[in-house]
C-alpha cells in the first residue's frame, strides 16, 4: 500500500464516481463506532499500493472484460494487502468464497486476478427481478456478468439468482460453509443486518468477512444504512470476531463459533 496520508483520504472522499456528497461522508466519518476507531486510524496510517489498480485495469483490458463502472477500484488499494495475507496463510489450498452483490462481476474478476486458480465461488445477485428489482438496465447486466465470468479461472462457480435475504437461509440449512465472504448487496440496515447474521454462521472459524460501504449511514431509499447495521452486529457478536481492518470496508476475522 502507498502512504496512507490524509491527502489520499481527502482525494478518495471527493471521488466523482461516488454518489454520496462530501458532507454526508464527513458526517459518517465523524460518527465512526468507537470500537472501530483505533483500527480506522491504524488503517489510514498504513501503506497502500495504488499501483495495483493500474495493474488490474491493464489485466482487465487484456482479458476483454466488459465493465461499465469502476466502483471496486476505490477499495482495491485498501483490501489487497488483507487478501494477500489471508491467502498466504492458507498455502495452496482452495478458498471457499461467497460474494453478495456481483453486478457485472468486476470485484470477482479482481479476486480471480489476485488469487488465480484458488477460489471456489458462490455468488448471490437478483440482477433483474420483475417484482423486486425491475430496473430495465439489469436486463443487460446479467448477460454481461456471465460473459465476464467465462473469462475467469475459478475452480468452480455457482451463481444463485435471488436476494440474499432469501438465499442465505437456504444455504445455512444446506450446511454450506465459506472461508471468505464479501458483502456488498443491499444498503438498507435491515437487509445488511440479516446478511451479516447469516454470513456469521456460514463463515468458518478463521475465515474473514469483508463488508463494503461501511460509511453509508443512510440508504439510497431512505432510513438507516450499512453503518448502523454493522455497528449493531458488532455490538452483539464482536466477541466472536477480530477486527482485521476498517476503512471504506470493515474486515472481520471469525475467532470462535457463535452459539445458535
UniProtKB/TrEMBL annotation:
It comes from the Bacteria. This is O-methyltransferase YrrM. The lineage of its organism: Bacteria, Pseudomonadati, Pseudomonadota, Alphaproteobacteria, Caulobacterales.
